[in-house]
Amino acid sequence: MRDASVASHATRGMRRAPGNLYELVHPPDDPHLSNADLAPTRVSQRTWTTYHIASLWIGLSVCIPTYMLASSLVGGGMNWWQAILTIMLGNLIVCVPMVLIAHAGTRYGIPFPVLARASFGIRGSNVPAMLRAVVACGWFGIQTWIGGQAIYTMLNVALPQWEPPFAMALGFIVFWLMNMYVVVRGSESIKALEAWAAPFLIGSGLALLAWATWRAGGLGPILDRPSRFETTGAFLLFFVPSLTAMVGFWATLALNIPDLSRYARDQRAQVRGQFLGLPTTMTLFAFIGVAVTSASDVVFGEPIWDPVQLLSRLESPVLVVVALFALLIATLTTNVAANVVAPANGFANLWPSRIDFARGGILTGLIGIAIMPWRLLESGDRYIGWLIAYSAFLGPIAGVFIADYWVVRRARLVLADLYSSRGIYRGWNPRALAALGAGIAVALVGLLVPPLRVLYDYAWFVGFAVAFLSYAALMRGTPLVDLNGVPPVND
């Protein structure tokens, strides 16, 4: 039976390697559906170990939006342990769809837009790819604005007498160019950057925590700050949308994780790397954000949730520059891996013969500027609101992906047909679009109908569940032989 299944895959243009990894016998040759960046990775190219995946998540998690996330929860009324528990729970929850969706990237070597072709169809895949791309462009703009602020502050400290009227814009442009440099150099430069930066970022975060503890006179003044919620009901009214925001924070990468997991050596590396790297680092750095924000209230008489503003108040100019350099590296590692890879591949999926990864990345950078990210960072409430709003669109996509790959197709794809306009995934899948629309609509009803507000507060969860169940029901009864073009594979 196993020999027969391997043979059936071979006839569909696939070669199977140890560990249930698949690759194409011949590279895709349709320029309208593939280019060097969208083509599946060869098994020999899947070299990222558990360390590389974990270090990737360290680089992604140690960033200013993570810090601001924790700080905004404290600013909203939580005490330190309520904020940390909310963040840890949200990251443990999002790790589950992350690992499930990453499986396809590792097994077949395909990026996110190509995986979307299995459920939405060759043409329909552009719908989830563009929804994800728009969100990523927003995040790219946010991170680039933060990095620009860091460069501006470093210049201010190093050259206090030199402050031209365009100094902030100069910092923004310089950091934008730094991102574009890494993007143009490709995926291997991202791997090298993340592996080098991971230990440096952890050390920098712990050093910041040590400074806050020292200036506040110990952890006592930091951890003794009480919750401002007088009743359980009042706490839950803030906790529910906050938990959705925590899941929404990485709901972006939960979709396009195949863009990165396609380089993993095997499934063990991607699963272990994600569970070791994501929840642990997010919780640690969130604690640092909570502690340092609380310490700033003790030291400066007001809670400062923006770390760039906080670091600018340090006593030593040398210390300010070193700390801001660490912040700059943290922002760069997150921005490139989390906010450029997905939209770059998504734009390439629109027009593979004309748009490659580098051009897609530059397009991402330009749209990120046009979104005016500084508006999203004006307050903690607006920041949390941004996370909840887009989770209403991304949760349903994740629901369709997981239902299609695990429930409907049982983790079996025909790799060659994902790159062929004449294959079994051609055109559009209206059932996937219907499930996506149902998930989004139910989540947004809570925004429009006040008595149903809980649907919007749980936007990611509600959208995911509705889309998952709708898609599974709509596809029910379709034989695997029709879905995959081959009999079920016993692996």
Total number of beta strands:
2
In the sheet with the most strands, the strands line up as 1-2
Coarse shape: globular
Describe the sheet with the most strands: 2 strands, antiparallel
Strand content: under 5%
User: What is the CA-atom radius of gyration, in angstroms?
Assistant: 23 Å
By secondary-structure content and strand pairing, the structural class works out as mainly alpha
Percentage of residues in helical conformation: over 70%
Uncertain residue segments: 1-11, 486-491
Mean pLDDT across every amino acid position? 83
Listing every helix as H and every strand as E from the N terminus to the C terminus, the arrangement reads HEEHHHHHHHHHHHHHHHHHHHH
Q: Report the total helices.
A: 21
Distance between the termini: 10 Å
Oligomer state equals single chain
Write the layout of secondary structure elements.
Blueprint: H1 2-11, E1 14-17, E2 21-24, H2 50-61, H3 64-75, H4 80-108, H5 112-120, H6 126-158, H7 167-185, H8 187-216, H9 220-223, H10 232-256, H11 258-261, H12 267-300, H13 307-311, H14 317-339, H15 341-350, H16 357-370, H17 380-408, H18 430-448, H19 453-457, H20 459-474, H21 480-484
Antiparallel strand pairs: 1-2
Helix pairs in contact: 2-8, 2-12, 2-14, 3-4, 3-12, 3-17, 4-10, 4-12, 4-17, 5-6, 5-17, 6-7, 6-14, 6-15, 6-16, 6-17, 7-16, 8-12, 8-14, 10-17, 15-16, 17-18, 17-20, 18-20
